[in-house]
Amino acid sequence: MSRYSTARLATALAAMLVAAGAAHAQQASAAAAPSFPAPEVGSVAPDFALPGATRYGLLRDPVHLSDYRGKTVVLAFFYRARTKG
Fold first, then answer.
1. Which neighbouring-strand residues pair with 57?
2. Cα dist. 24→12, 15, 29, 33, 53 in Å?
3. What pLDDT is recorded for position 70?
């Protein structure tokens, strides 16, 4: 077998291993995640609490959804906020 054929075989095997590992990780995370029923459109959301933040930092007390009952609430997630990414 030539050096070129060996390199191609090694690359193909590495790609298959990476794909198999990614599929296994995806199956494991799907199995570990709890399944909750999707909310119906127009239904009332269950109450929950989250740490609140301002531009100056985290709030001392958590923010409860029930504090805003009857008002429009928009949840925004900025997954790269306060990171180097």
1. 54
2. 18, 14, 9, 14, 36
3. 87
Which two structure tokens, joined as six digits, stand for 45?
């959301």
- Provide the token pair at 22: 């990614």
Distance, CA of 14 to CA of 47 (rounded, Å): 47
> Which residue has tokens 């790609």?
15
**Partners of 10 in the β-ladder:** none
Task: Summarize pLDDT for 53-80 with one digit per residue, the tens.
Answer: 888 988 999 999 999 888 888 878 788 8
Task: Give the span between the Cα atoms of 81 and 78, in whole angstroms.
Answer: 5
User: 67, 73 in Cβ contact below 8 A?
Assistant: no
Kindly report whether the global pTM for this prediction surpasses the value 0.90: no
